[in-house]
Write a structure and sequence with these properties.
Strand content of chain A: over 45%
Shape of chain A: globular
Number of strands of chain A: 12
Oligomer: heterodimer
Distance between the termini of chain A: 41 Å
Order of helices and strands of chain A: EEEEEEEEEEEE
Helix content of chain B: under 10%
Largest sheet of chain B: 7 strands, mixed
Structural class of chain B: mainly beta
Shape of chain B: globular
Largest sheet of chain A: 6 strands, mixed
Number of strands of chain B: 11
Largest interface: A-B, 27 and 26 residues
Chain lengths: ~110, ~110
C-alpha cells in the first residue's frame, strides 16, 4: 500500500543551523508529495509541494526535491529561525484519495 | 475571512454523549475532508465528500456520521462518545480530487471525552 516514512524527532537545533528532515515514500504510480507545517495550537499549513519527479518545491527558505529514484522528498533549510519551531509532516496524494501523512517531526530551534 | 472554519474549537464532554462538529469553507472548493489527529500527532483520513457525495469512508466506527448539506459545509456527528474518541479533528478542503490539489485545513477541534 501507499505510505510515508519520516525521520523520528524531536530535532533540536540552534538558530542559523542547517536543517534536514528525511522523508521517503512507498506508492504505486506517481503521487504528488507535500510538506505541511503545524505550529503549536494551529491547523496544518502547506509549506511546499512537488507533483512530478525532479520537481523542486520551495517556500520561506525551505526546499524539497521529488526524487523518484530514491523515493524521497527530504526537507531542507539553510538557516533555521526560532519561528520555524513546529511539527513538520510529509505527505503523499494520489488522484481520488486523501493525503497520507508521515508521523510528523517536531523541530525545536533555540536562540 | 477564514478560508476553512470549524466550530467549536474545544469540546469537552462525558462518555456516552452525542456531539457534532461543524466545518465551513469559503474557497469554492468541491472536495472536503475530515482527519483525526491522535495524541501522538498522527493524522489519518476519516471521510471525504465531493460535491456532497461521500467518496472516502475509511475504517471508522459507525458511531461517526458525516453529513454534507451543501458543498461548502461538512459536519461530523459522533454518537455514544468513548474515551478513545479524544483527539483533534481537522476539516480540510481542496479544489477537487486531483493528485496535485492542495488541501487547506481548518484550525481543528480538540475533543476531550471524560
Amino acid at each position: 500500500g501507499n505510505s510515508v516514512t519520516q525521520m523520528e524527532g524531536p530535532v533540536t537545533l540552534s538558530e542559523e543551523a542547517f536543517l534536514t528532515i528525511n522523508c521517503t515514500y512507498t506508492a504505486t504510480g506517481y503521487p504528488s508529495l507535500f510538506w505541511y507545517v503545524q505550529y503549536p495550537g494551529e491547523g496544518l499549513q502547506l509549506l511546499l509541494k512537488a507533483t512530478k519527479a525532479d520537481d523542486k518545491g520551495s517556500n520561506k527558505g525551505f526546499e524539497a526535491t521529488y526524487r523518484k529514484e530514491t523515493t524521497s522528498f527530504h526537507l531542507e533549510k539553510g538557516s533555521v529561525q526560532v519561528s520555524d519551531s513546529a511539527v513538520y509532516f510529509c505527505a503523499l496524494k494520489k488522484a481520488g484519495t486523501a493525503l497520507i501523512f508521515g508521523k510528523g517531526t517536531t523541530l525545536s530551534v533555540s536562540s | 475571512d477564514t478560508a476553512v472554519s470549524q466550530t467549536p474549537k474545544y469540546l469537552v464532554t462525558q462518555m456516552g454523549n452525542d456531539k457534532s462538529i461543524k466545518c465551513e469553507q469559503n474557497l469554492g472548493h468541491d472536495t472536503m475532508y475530515w482527519y483525526k489527529q491522535d495524541s501522538k500527532k498522527f493524522l489519518k483520513i476519516m471521510f471525504s465528500y465531493n460535491n456532497k457525495e461521500l467518496i472516502i469512508n475509511e475504517t471508522v466506527p459507525n458511531r461517526f456520521s458525516p453529513k454534507s448539506p451543501d458543498k461548502a459545509h461538512l459536519n461530523l456527528h459522533i454518537n455514544s462518545l468513548e474515551l478513545g474518541d479524544s483527539a483533534v479533528y481537522f476539516c480540510a478542503s481542496s479544489p477537487g480530487q486531483g493528485f496535485s490539489d492542495t488541501q487547506y485545513f481548518g484550525p481543528g477541534t480538540r475533543l476531550t471525552v471524560l
